[in-house]
């Protein structure tokens, strides 16, 4: 178990190893009733180990895991929260900054499935933008199943949640479940970036209109144009006279042109 980062800045306070490289760093909070196997899932994901006598979490525990999802190296911070009622008032303080959340229930214990709504309401209140994954743990205990998969799927569809059944004991679908959550977060980030870029382009301010010149400036411009034309005309006449070796002469006193 790693030390717990500062709650005020849960993501940025995490300091990776110097040789560690990743494209994204996501905070994921794991919630659910006590005894559903939250810690066992995380231990299996991060260290590929399982303990039958896993002790209950007190407060919060912290681990991390790097996953390659959609050609991106993603490091997820896993915040394993306590499920006992005496810690429920404290748990929401750990939700801040979460981009993803995992609600865990026990497929052999119907009460833990019924509590999903409580955890969903809490997440929606304290981290409404987080993408939520529901994991039905202990899927290996087929004979003890108390929550039909059809019921779980119907609930997930109604609430627009991602549902995966897994087993922390035999590693079944554990990494697949977290890969699925990360993929959803990545897709949402890409869509949000595209939407923001599109909105920015569509609502960018128009270029400033050209300043309309005043009437006095227009008159001055016209006078300058006429002077320029007269000057150019004289220069052209001078140029033609130079070609024939003669200079233009002034008009005679009788008004006739001297040739």
From TrEMBL:
Gene3D superfamilies: P-loop containing nucleotide triphosphate hydrolases. The keyword Nucleotide-binding applies. One of its GO terms (molecular function) is GTP binding. Residues 229-259 are annotated as: Disordered. Keywords: GTP-binding, Lipoprotein, Nucleotide-binding. Belongs to the small GTPase superfamily. Rab family. PANTHER family: DRAB11-RELATED. This is Uncharacterized protein. It comes from Triparma strigata. The lineage of its organism: Eukaryota, Sar, Stramenopiles, Ochrophyta, Bolidophyceae.
